[in-house]
Amino acid sequence: MHEDWTLATRSVALGRPAHEPGAPVNPPLELSSTYVAGADPGYGRVGNRTWDALEQTLGGLEGGRCLAFASGMAAVAAALSLVPRGGVVVAPDGAYNTTLSLLEALAADGSVRELRRVDPADTDAVVAALPGADLVWLESPTNPLLEVADLSAIAAAAHDAGAIVVCDNTFATPIVQRPLELGVDVIVHSVTKYLAGHSDVVLGAVVTDRRELGERLHAHRTLHGAIPGPHETWLALRGMRTLALRVERATASAAELARRLGEHPSVSRVRYPGLGAIVSIEIAAGAEAADRVCRATRLWTHATSLGGVESLLERRRRHANEPVVVPEDLVRLSVGIEDVEDLWRDLDQALRSV
Ligand SMILES: *Cc1c(COP(=O)(O)O)cnc(C)c1O
Question: Which end of the chain has fewer CB atoms < 10 Å from its terminal CB, N or C?
Fold first, then answer.
């Protein structure tokens, strides 16, 4: 039935108890480490009905089987476990820094024999890197350069080359982009960000429409114990009920701010791909001035992370493991759902103060 529903409806209506007299409208928070013998899940590391509610909702939004993980990075690690030992991985030159650090660690210890770094927006370069590859890692738009990959062209070429394709869909969310429909095999989410949406939980998820990969990812979660807490999945699902509203509002504000920032004398470059609610700007007066901008806002919070209802900003290169392709003076803006005029006034005064 839910195939007829729009994404906004699915995010509200999926993962609820059946409409029966006396049933609660929300899934109960199931706190149990073990279950009476004789039926699934049997034990709390294998399954939990509060996880199920979140997984049904996110799976219904992305169009596949969803598995919740302890964090976005636990989901990334599970997806990378699909690389055969000594395999070849094609990955972006710029992407979420900790994903790249994990890939580099896997390459350093020989788990990955060859790590081929490419510009994901350059489809020809990605395709040229495919022969012999086992897995293509994509993130689109990328964090924080906001490079957009041609997911369907890359997925088709990767499949011809015998590689599986993973896409980190954290920045776009299923409201903006549904990678499985474009041929991607596995989606990874940092649920911490837009899906949960309130900066109060760390959680991850994978979604796949390939049965065999789903079984392997489920086995990985159980064997490695990379499981979420029931409270976290309950909170994330409550946040997801407003996903469409939040993404629509934040995206509209991001587009307006990107337009105004393009004319701001203190800003030398604006990156905004026209989707989602992250805007990256470069500060004309350099990295030190960029740090001062981050400290000069009153409404925007100087903090890492993104995707919450409140607007955040940070200079990404303050992190030692940020890829060097990211300019030193780049400030990433995570636009929240506050009034856009209040956001603009605060940003404008901070930019003018340096
Ligand atoms: C934050 C983030 C992650 C990691 O997720 P955690 O929930 O922090 O472990 C992965 N990918 C992207 C694009 C992210 O922004």
Answer: N
